């Protein structure tokens, strides 16, 4: 017998038929003798609609009231699933964030979970009741409803699994696992049986959108075993686990891409101490996150500086750098949103050399120019023209021997 948290995303609870299917799945786990708690998202599209309403009324709406509105999506599905479970003879009860309670800080719209007091839920599971918790929401220090940021019900599920010391947190979604890369681009992408927390974290942060990044961070910190699986098909998914569970560490586990970045180049920046600090201070002051950075060796007293920012932040970055142009003394600012970041990720990189070379060689053979390079212990990322995204991902998937049998 195990204790399992089952989380169902928006597409899995998109209509009443699907909610009935979910109830069937939960019932099966209960009948197998497991203790089960469920976490649900809002029905597909509902949160988007609620966000739009807030924006239409006032673009600069009060974040506390935004939370009051957007948290309702999950309230609906928690009640509906509890009814569907009762209808098939499973004892169930819905729980809103404030009822559990899921305690968060006061950062409305993107609150952090501070603690989940799970004792009552554990007690009820012990007597055969299934708690159905509304994901994405909690209660802030002043007693108001908070939400955890978009995609936050993954985080709710992992946090609940940690709080009730679950053996596993199963995330049911519209894909059947974690793949070596996006199967829409590479039909021969393979489903991974398991992947380490660290790899999953790198993949999630560079564009693999299966799990919310913060939920992976929390799973890693709390050592929660996570399984990603399909709510539509009956087959095992992919496990996200500690790297100790690997017999052999894969050199490269996956390839991710993201078109969410834009490239900014400052031409002929004076080459003197303090210039980088001034540029990045200005950006930080405007809340612009910088990712990749390159700076050339100076020649004739100046240098070019290139970096990437989120596409959504590009206008703000141009604005703030424009305002300090005289102070910094650069010649021109060039912005290019038509770029893609391609990343290869694998824990085996720690102990093997040549991973980056393979990447550069494979891209060269396809005639793809690399604009910026950055690395971490288990990741190499390059920035290329957005036109080459698919070609680059396919070439790398083959170069690292990740192609599965032709379908
Ligand atoms: N319903 C919320 C959203 O759409 C939370 C979630 O689905 O994870 O962002
Ligand atoms: Mg989601």
**Distinct helical segment count:** 13
What is the arithmetic mean of pLDDT? 95
Describe the largest sheet: 8 strands, mixed
> Pairing-aware structural class of the strands and helices?
alpha/beta
Tag the structure with descriptive keywords:
single chain; 407 residues; alpha/beta; Carbamate kinase; VC0802-like; 2 domains; 8-stranded mixed β-sheet; 4-stranded antiparallel β-sheet; 13 helices; 20 strands; globular; binds aspartic acid; binds magnesium ion
Verbal overview:
With 407 residues, the protein is of the alpha/beta class. The chain has two domains: 3-174, Acetylglutamate kinase-like (Carbamate kinase); 244-407, VC0802-like (2-Layer Sandwich). Helix content is 34%, strand content 26%. It has helices spanning 16-31, 46-57, 63-70, 72-87, 119-126, 153-163, 197-205, 213-222, 275-285, 314-323, 325-328, 355-365, 389-399, and strands spanning 3-8, 35-40, 92-95, 102-104, 113-116, 130-134, 137-139, 145-147, 168-173, 194-196, 226-230, 238-241, 254-258, 261-270, 290-295, 302-310, 332-336, 339-345, 372-376, 379-385. It has an eight-stranded mixed sheet with strand order 3-6-2-1-9-11-12-10, sandwiched between helices. Strands 13-18-20-19 form a four-stranded antiparallel sheet, sandwiched between helices. The protein has a four-stranded antiparallel sheet with strand order 15-16-14-17, covered by helices on one side. A hairpin with a 6-residue loop joins strand 15 and strand 16 (302-310). Helix 6 (153-163) packs parallel to helix 8, helix 7 (197-205) runs antiparallel to helix 8 and helix 12 (355-365) packs across helix 13. Magnesium ion binds next to loops. The site of magnesium ion (MG) has 3 residues, from loops.
